[in-house]
Design goal:
With about 190 residues, this protein is mostly helical. Strand 2 and strand 3 form a beta hairpin. The protein is globular. It has one domain. The protein has a three-stranded mixed beta sheet. The chain is built from seven helices and three strands. The N terminus is likely disordered. The longest helix is centred in the N-terminal third of the chain and has 27 residues. Helix 2 packs across helix 4. The structure holds zinc ion. The site of zinc ion has 4 residues, from helix 4 and helix 6.
C-alpha cells in the first residue's frame, strides 16, 4: 500500500508535469506539430505529382519540412537579410529541406496554405532529384511545372482559388531573364 501510494505520488506528479510540458510545447511550438502532419501527407502529394506529370519519386530521402516566419523565409530564399517578401516557401537542395511560411503571403489565404506550398515545393524536390534541375535553361523554368501542378492540386482538392498562382506572376517568374531583358530592366 505504501509502495503503491508512493508510486502514485511520484508517477502522478510526473504525469502532470509531462502534461504541462506538452501543453507548453503546443503553445510555444505549434509549427512543430503542424509540420509533423504535413510530413505525413508527403507520400500522397508525391503520388499526386506522379499521377499528373512525368516526374517520378524514386525513394530518395524525403525532405525535412521547416516552418518559418516571413523574415526567415525571405532571408533564406534571397540569401541575405530581407524582412518582407511574397515568398511562401522554398526548397533548399543542399540540405534537402523545404521551408514553408507560418502564415499566408499577402496574395494567398489560409485555406490549406501550407499544403499548397508543400505540393509546389515537392515538385522542386523531384526536379532536383531526377536531374531536371540540371537540364533546364534557367532556374525560372522549373516554376512552370510547379505552378501547373499547384493549380491542378487546388482544383482537384476544391481549395480556395486564391491559392492558385496569379497567371501573369507565374508567367513572369517562369521566364529566363536573358530571354526577356526589358522585363527585367537589364541593358543588352
Ligand atoms: Zn517554385
Amino acid at each position: 500500500m505504501v509502495l503503491s501510494s508512493m508510486w502514485c505520488k511520484r508517477k502522478c506528479g510526473d504525469r502532470k508535469r509531462i502534461m504541462r510540458l506538452i501543453v507548453a510545447l503546443l503553445i510555444l511550438y505549434p509549427s512543430v506539430v503542424f509540420s509533423h502532419s504535413l510530413e505525413k501527407q508527403m507520400p500522397n502529394f508525391l503520388q499526386f505529382i506522379e499521377d499528373n506529370s512525368l516526374y517520378e519519386y524514386k525513394n530518395t530521402p524525403l525532405p525535412e519540412i521547416i516552418i518559418v516566419n516571413e523574415k526567415d523565409v525571405c532571408t533564406g530564399a534571397y540569401g541575405k537579410p530581407v524582412d518582407t517578401c511574397d515568398i511562401a516557401g522554398y526548397y533548399n537542395h543542399d540540405t534537402n529541406q523545404i521551408y514553408i511560411r507560418n502564415e499566408p503571403t499577402q496574395y494567398m489565404v489560409q485555406d490549406r496554405f501550407q499544403e499548397v506550398v508543400l505540393l509546389h515545393e515537392l515538385v522542386h524536390y523531384l526536379q532536383y532529384m531526377d536531374g531536371t534541375f540540371e537540364i533546364v535553361e534557367c532556374r525560372q523554368n522549373l516554376e512552370i511545372h510547379a505552378y501547373n501542378l499547384q493549380e491542378l492540386f487546388v482544383d482537384s482538392e476544391g481549395i480556395d482559388e486564391q491559392q492558385k498562382p496569379d497567371p501573369l506572376f507565374a508567367l513572369i517568374t517562369s521566364m529566363c531573364p536573358n530571354q526577356h531583358p526589358l522585363m527585367f530592366h537589364t541593358e543588352q
